[in-house]
């Protein structure tokens, strides 16, 4: 993970305006790697605290439980949380045969790459600017032995910064899943994120409403804690697919603290049902998105 803005290849590109030989080779490797991954899902939002990582992890775990081969690429360089949500403590090891990094293995169907797994001390802050983050994200694709996957879910930081632009440039056929919560303060930032995706001519798979109501664990009654339905209304306004709603559920918090996705718990819960339905909807929407992707980039 040594590439940065001061390396000769970066200087060469800046001076000539053309990719260096090293960058061109890496582009070919990235293209070859992505060619073995059927669907790339970019999970994003303009707002922090809406549960992007929780949606990413539980959707990935649900898809893996359905028998799909799934990878999670955590590009939240400064605040990675995927390994903690999955209870992964082991670091990432190199593949001696090919010289690549092997992603951390959660189970036979689910694999993870995250900056958190590369740090000796997980409490260490990562003080990187744009060029180093861009180089790291590219290496997370080119230098990792992802193999053949049905889905690669990319967990992003809040906003529309360097990480998002790098992902969309590196993975132009990524299908974007926009996560929001029902209240207006979240929807306002998500509208900006959708505008960013439209400007970037990205493929938007649909919208997810997280924290959609709260079901009382005692009486089973529903409480509209953060309102409800804002995500669906947003999707309808922009002509996007509404992929599903996941309610607030104490089981999600307990599962996250245990390092187990709520969809992997034996006991049933509203959140577990919501995430399983969301995963099924995302799988179906991805399978039906090929014509849309082809027409977008024709």
Automatic annotation (TrEMBL):
Any one Pfam family here would be ParA
* PROSITE patterns linked to this entry: MRP
Q: Which UniProt keywords apply?
A: ATP-binding, Hydrolase, Iron, Iron-sulfur, Metal-binding, Nucleotide-binding
Is the keyword Cell wall biogenesis/degradation assigned to this protein?
A: no
Q: Cellular component terms, GO, for this chain's entry?
A: cytosol
Residues that coordinate or bind ATP: 46-53
Q: Does the keyword Metal-binding apply?
A: yes
Output the superkingdom of the source species. Bacteria
Per the UniProt entry, what is one GO biological process?
iron-sulfur cluster assembly
Q: What is the annotated role of this protein in its UniProt record?
A: Binds and transfers iron-sulfur (Fe-S) clusters to target apoproteins. Can hydrolyze ATP.
- Which PANTHER family does this entry report, sorted A to Z? CYTOSOLIC FE-S CLUSTER ASSEMBLY FACTOR NUBP2, NUCLEOTIDE-BINDING PROTEIN NBP35 YEAST -RELATED
- Belongs to which family? Belongs to the Mrp/NBP35 ATP-binding proteins family.
Q: What quaternary structure, including any partners, is listed in this protein's UniProt entry?
A: Homodimer.
From the Swiss-Prot or TrEMBL record, give the protein name: Iron-sulfur cluster carrier protein
């Amino acid at each position: 993970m040594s590439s940065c803005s001061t390396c000769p290849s970066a200087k060469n590109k800046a001076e000539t305006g053309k990719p260096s030989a090293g960058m061109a080779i890496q582009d070919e490797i990235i293209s070859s790697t992505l060619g073995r991954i059927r669907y790339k899902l970019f999970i994003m939002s303009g707002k922090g605290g809406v549960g992007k990582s929780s949606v990413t992890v539980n959707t990935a775990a649900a898809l893996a439980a359905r028998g799909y081969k799934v990878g999670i690429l955590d590009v939240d360089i400064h605040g990675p949380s995927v390994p903690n949500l999955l209870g992964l403590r082991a670091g990432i090891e190199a593949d001696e045969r090919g010289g690549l990094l092997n992603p951390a293995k959660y189970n036979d169907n689910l694999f993870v790459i995250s900056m958190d797994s590369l740090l000796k001390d997980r409490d260490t802050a990562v003080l990187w600017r744009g060029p180093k983050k861009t180089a790291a994200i590219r290496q997370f694709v080119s230098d990792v032995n992802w193999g053949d996957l049905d889905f690669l879910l990319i967990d992003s930081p809040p906003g529309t910064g360097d990480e998002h632009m790098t992902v969309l440039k590196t993975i132009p056929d990524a299908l974007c899943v926009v996560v929001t919560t029902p209240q207006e303060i979240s929807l306002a930032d998500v509208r900006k994120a959708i505008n960013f995706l439209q400007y970037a001519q990205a493929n938007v798979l649909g919208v997810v409403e997280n924290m959609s109501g709260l079901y009382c664990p005692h009486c089973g009654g529903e409480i509209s804690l953060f309102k409800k339905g804002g995500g669906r209304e947003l999707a309808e306004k922009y002509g996007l697919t509404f992929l599903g709603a996941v309610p607030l559920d104490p089981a999600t918090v307990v599962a996250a603290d245990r390092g187990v996705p709520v969809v992997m718990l034996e006991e049933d819960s509203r959140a577990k049902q919501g995430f399983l339905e969301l995963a099924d909807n995302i799988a179906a929407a991805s399978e039906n998105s090929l014509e849309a992707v082809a027409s977008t980039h024709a």
